[in-house]
Amino acid sequence: MNTINAKPYPYSLPDKAPALIIIDMQRDFVETGGFGSALGNDVTLLTKVIPVIEKLLRVYRRLNLPVIHTREAHQADLSDCPPSKRRRGNCSIKIGDPGPMGRLLIDGEPGNNIVPALQPLEGEYDIAKPGKGAFYATPLHDILKQQGITHLIFAGVTTEVCVQTTMREANDRGFECLLVEDATESYFPEFKQATLDMITAQGAIVGWTATSEQVIQAIEKTYG
Ligand code: C5J
Question: Are 47 and 182 in contact (CB under 8 A)?
Answer without folding.
Answer: no
